[in-house]
Specification:
mainly beta, 16-stranded antiparallel beta barrel, 1 helix, 1% helix, 59% strand
């Protein structure tokens, strides 16, 4: 990728002939490395889909919806074009040390916006980092550690393997200890754009009200050109501050995630693999969540159970000027492994859902997406065929899904990037 280099120099000096006056001078030199791309996409789906941003960010096909003639109204194709993934990035570095460390900052934005304002310029990354020989400290908004940048899907489609692979950028502070070929990472994380589900819909307030940030620990190692890593993630939410009886409450729900990944590099062949066992991973755009498991009839105090899921994906890449690759993955809903309450009827007769999850009627999602990229500097031409199957069924008493019925979506995507 070609990059433009902007060197900015500031120099100032004050001189005075007044007695006892001293000369004061400041010289600060820094670099801004600018990069990005303009991306055009053309994509067609074989049926209606669950998605974000006018269909560009695809999750899975929509469940069947039968009319009076037993026709599936969601079995209708979908077509669109878009350039809203166009991206701009700047990396700032200084020529001077800071406490014997190397400071730098990153800002990145695109036009991905929201569904009702798809041209909105939004923050992707904004953080500062200081690197010492054996320790790094980062603070700002960037990828959540469950999204491992050294080992993530590189699909043409923007979904990057969602809901099979984790996807999240969040405000955080994290430190990484470097010891030979081993890194130990610890992070405290909040939520911003991708949030947890709860009684009032998706929101970051459930985590903010818990006072304790999302905590993450990860161990990474590098052997020759190969990478391996394991991680564990802890999150605590407080879904409500007041019961339906008007009583203060601090009921909470805690969840854990475990991660293992590897990236094997046999130039020019790259193999990536990741396995994640998760509880309540809706803030990572995955399946799962939590549900009410008991209710006190007098106070309306509630206890919760996490809804679990497991996911596995792998990717093969042959790095050439014409680069073939394939992504394959699956995620399975494991339920709560204990009885849950699916709905509660309020005194006014309103039926309240007490499952806070991303489509709890899904049993599993499977995807395979072969692709090819052609690098003609500074242009990249890409094509991808994405097959996604989702099985929808009935929620059992323990949160598992039974009597599943699978539906398929075929997406054909063509894209062109102009990189700078």
């Amino acid at each position: 990728m070609k990059k433009a280099l902007l060197i900015v120099c500031f120099a100032a000096s004050l001189h005075s002939d007044v007695a006892h006056a001293q000369t004061f001078s400041v010289r600060d030199i820094f670099k801004i490395d600018l990069s990005g791309y303009i991306k055009y996409e053309n994509y067609t789906d074989s049926r209606q889909i669950v998605s974000l941003r006018l269909g560009q960010f695809l999750f899975y096909p929509q469940a069947p919806n039968y009319d009076v003639l037993n026709n599936d109204t969601n079995s209708v194709s979908h077509f669109s074009m878009s350039v809203i993934q166009t991206r701009f990035r700047g990396e700032v570095t200084t020529c001077s040390d800071m406490w014997n460390g190397e400071p730098h900052g990153v800002f990145e934005a695109d036009f991905f916006g929201f569904d009702r304002a798809v041209t909105a310029f939004r923050i992707r990354h904004a953080y500062g980092e200081i690197n010492w020989k054996q320790f790094s400290l980062l603070a700002g908004h960037t990828w959540d550690p469950l999204f491992v940048t050294e080992c993530c899907p590189e699909t043409v489609g923007y979904n990057t393997g969602v809901p099979i692979a984790a996807f999240n950028r969040s405000p955080q502070i994290r430190g990484t200890l470097h010891w030979d070929n081993v890194d130990i990472l610890c992070a405290a994380i909040t939520q911003f754009e991708t949030t947890s589900f709860g009684p009032d819909g998706p929101s970051s307030k459930y985590l903010r009200n818990s006072v304790i940030p999302n905590l993450h620990w990860q161990l990474r190692t590098k052997i020759n050109t190969h990478r391996f890593g394991i991680g564990i993630d802890y999150k605590r939410l407080i879904p409500r501050l007041e019961t339906d009886k008007g009583i203060k409450t601090t009921e909470s729900i805690s969840s854990m995630c475990a991660l293992f990944y590897t990236k094997l590099n046999w130039d020019p062949v790259i193999f990536k693999m990741e396995m994640l066992y998760g509880q309540n991973t809706t803030d990572h755009l995955m399946l799962g969540g939590y549900a009410v498991k008991s209710v006190d009839p007098v106070t309306d105090f509630r206890k919760y159970a996490t809804l679990k899921n497991i996911s596995f994906w792998a990717e093969f890449i042959v790095q050439k000027t014409v680069e073939p690759a394939v992504f394959i993955g699956v995620t399975q809903n494991l339920g709560a492994h204990q009885s849950i309450i699916q709905t509660i009827t309020d005194p006014d007769g309103t039926v309240e859902s007490t499952i806070y999850a991303r489509d709890p009627h899904i049993d599993y999602v499977f995807r395979i997406s072969p692709r090819v990229r052609w690098y003609i500097d500074p242009l990249v031409i890409a094509g991808e065929f994405e097959f996604t199957r989702a099985s929808f069924g009935t929620i059992a008493c323990n949160g598992n899904v039974i009597n599943g019925h699978a539906v398929n979506n075929f997406r054909l995507m063509l894209a062109a990037y102009y990189e700078f």
